[in-house]
Amino acid sequence: MKIRTGFGYDVHQLQPGLPFWLGGIEVPHTHGALGHSDADVLIHVICDALLGAANLRDIGFHFPDTDPQYKGIDSKKLLSGVMRLLRERGYEVSNIDSTICLERPKVNPHIPEMQRVLAAVMGIAEEDISIKATTTEKLGFVGRQEGVAAYASVLIQKGL
Ligand SMILES: Nc1ccn([C@@H]2O[C@H](COP(=O)(O)O)[C@@H](O)[C@H]2O)c(=O)n1
Ligand SMILES: C[C@@]1(CO)OP(=O)(O)OP(=O)(O)OC[C@H]1O
């Protein structure tokens, strides 16, 4: 049996009037994240953590932000592609832990739906996806509401 760990970190700017895609769902807010894709920072860190665990580079390597085919893409499709890459190599996901750094709005009310949506995309159990949130106490770019950041760690395994 092989067990490997992975870690992901990402940041996106917040801009007024954009849809705010986070954890696979649209969160009601005055601002949304800016990116080449739908800028779903939680999905991006999960992708990076999974790719890192399998030593498969990162999200921008597989889905470059210079490629027009990914313009505005639903990040759930990128996550699905990452899961395919892992499963082709025999890996299954044991669990994910993540933290979203966001001054507002509150993420807590949306976490059960995010878990449902992400579990369906990844083909794993909701209980294996932990999502947490924190403000940065009004400090830094998150505190000024200029951006959203996220971190994720994962455990993957094969040969059980
Ligand atoms: N965007 C956020 C930020 C935080 N939470 C929840 O509030 C708790 C307190 O936040 P602090 O930054 O003061 O530690 C935090 O532990 C989360 O449960 C949230 O839901 N959405
Ligand atoms: C997801 C991709 C691809 O559309 O674009 P962005 O939404 O800009 O996201 P980022 O995390 O900056 O980099 C990965 C990119 O390749």
UniProtKB/TrEMBL annotation:
Reaction it catalyzes: 4-CDP-2-C-methyl-D-erythritol 2-phosphate = 2-C-methyl-D-erythritol 2,4-cyclic diphosphate + CMP
GO molecular function: 2-C-methyl-D-erythritol 2,4-cyclodiphosphate synthase activity
Residue intervals of the 2-C-methyl-D-erythritol 2,4-cyclodiphosphate synthase domain: 3-156
Residues the UniProt record annotates as site (Transition state stabilizer): H36, T135
Binding residues annotated for 4-CDP-2-C-methyl-D-erythritol 2-phosphate, in chain numbering: 10-12, 36-37, 58-60, 63-67, 134-137, 141, 144
E.C. number(s) listed in UniProt: 4.6.1.12
Annotated residues for binding of a divalent metal cation: D10, H12, H44
CDD domains: MECDP_synthase
InterPro entries reported for this sequence: MECDP_synthase, MECDP_synthase_sf
Cofactor(s) in the UniProt record: a divalent metal cation
Pathway assigned in UniProt: Isoprenoid biosynthesis; isopentenyl diphosphate biosynthesis via DXP pathway; isopentenyl diphosphate from 1-deoxy-D-xylulose 5-phosphate: step 4/6
Cofactor note: Binds 1 divalent metal cation per subunit.
EC class of the enzyme, as a word: lyase
Alphabetical UniProt keywords: Isoprene biosynthesis, Lyase, Metal-binding
Family: Belongs to the IspF family.
Function per UniProt: Involved in the biosynthesis of isopentenyl diphosphate (IPP) and dimethylallyl diphosphate (DMAPP), two major building blocks of isoprenoid compounds. Catalyzes the conversion of 4-diphosphocytidyl-2-C-methyl-D-erythritol 2-phosphate (CDP-ME2P) to 2-C-methyl-D-erythritol 2,4-cyclodiphosphate (ME-CPP) with a corresponding release of cytidine 5-monophosphate (CMP).
PANTHER family hit by this protein: 2-C-METHYL-D-ERYTHRITOL 2,4-CYCLODIPHOSPHATE SYNTHASE, CHLOROPLASTIC
SUBUNIT field: Homotrimer.
Name of the featured protein: 2-C-methyl-D-erythritol 2,4-cyclodiphosphate synthase
Native organism: Hymenobacter negativus
